[in-house]
Design a protein that fits this description.
The protein is of the alpha/beta class. The protein has a single domain (about 5-225), classed as 3-Layer(aba) Sandwich (Glycerol-3-phosphate (1)-acyltransferase). Helix content is about 35%, strand content about 20%. The chain contains seven helices and nine strands, in the order αββαββαβαβαβαββα. It has helices spanning about 5-15, 45-55, 85-95, 105-120, 145-150, 175-180, 210-225; strands spanning about 15-20, 35-40, 60, 75-80, 100, 120-125, 155-165, 190-195, 200. Strands 1, 2, 3, 4, 5, 6, 7, 8 and 9 form a nine-stranded mixed β-sheet that branches. α1 (about 5-15) crosses α2 and α5 (about 145-150) crosses α7. The longest helix is centred in the C-terminal third of the chain and has 20 residues, at about 210-225. The protein is globular, with a radius of gyration of 16 Å. The protein starts with a helix and ends with a helix.
Length: about 230
């Protein structure tokens, strides 16, 4: 069965043209130990761009490899449990390392993500928690879970931002997915930038609220770098 990383890598090429910058900032993930990836969220289908691109760069969300692993790292994304409501998405996600989260109660997902970090895994999270956007479609305020995870272990926090992913699809989950599949005829141009990691050892003296502000600013600054080029 094709895993989500493999599937989305293929799909990302089919439905979009992605310009990627900051590749070398992923090198920090080649080191053993826990790591946290934080990504801005503007549409449910921006996972096609983000997860698909990371897979192509060697960081997969596919399930555990059998035999020799050829990937740089396996990633545990925190994703909406709504994905399991759609037959294709459910088939792709089953058996992967995706951590399902409920939009109204993320406590179980937080515990699972925390356990993964303590197991020296890489967790990917959308810290805004939803896809409501502002006028600029820039990164918005975070929910507290991501900052709590950042304080949970000494590790790098890698910011990843994208722009124009709403060209793939927007609105409800169902509408966004249908639009994304139809994008094979348009293949919109989308930008993605990987920013410089923040090391949480530098955040030890900060409260969770202060960490939230620091990391929100980091993600926004990374987005500004992308949109100003």
């Amino acid at each position: 069965m094709v895993g989500p990383g493999t599937f989305l890598a293929r799909m990302s090429r089919m439905v979009s043209r992605i310009s990627i910058s900051g590749h070398s900032n992923l090198d920090v993930l080649d080191q053993p130990g826990p790591a946290l990836i934080v990504v801005n969220h503007t549409t449910v289908v921006d996972v096609i761009v983000v997860i698909g691109t990371l897979h192509r760069l060697g960081f997969t969300t596919d399930g555990p490899c059998v035999g020799t692993c050829t990937h740089r790292r396996h990633i545990r994304p925190v994703g909406t449990s709504d994905m399991w409501d759609f037959p294709v998405a459910k088939q792709v996600c089953t058996g992967s390392g995706i951590i399902p989260t409920d939009q109204h109660d993320g406590r179980a997902a937080y515990r699972a993500a925390l356990a993964a970090l303590r197991n020296n895994e890489v967790v990917l999270i959308y810290p805004e928690g939803d896809v409501k956007i502002n006028d600029e479609a820039s990164p918005r305020s975070w929910r507290p879970g991501a900052s709590g995870l950042a304080k949970a272990a000494k590790m790098p926090v890698v910011p990843i931002v994208h722009h124009d992913t709403r060209k793939l699809g927007n609105g409800t989950v169902k509408r966004s997915i249908l639009m994304a599949f139809a994008s094979v005829f348009r293949r919109p141009k989308i930008k993605l930038h990987i920013g410089t990691a923040v090391h949480t050892r530098d955040l030890d003296h900060l409260t969770v609220s202060e960490v939230t502000v620091r990391l929100e600013e980091t993600l926004f600054d990374t987005w500004t770098q992308l949109t100003s080029t």
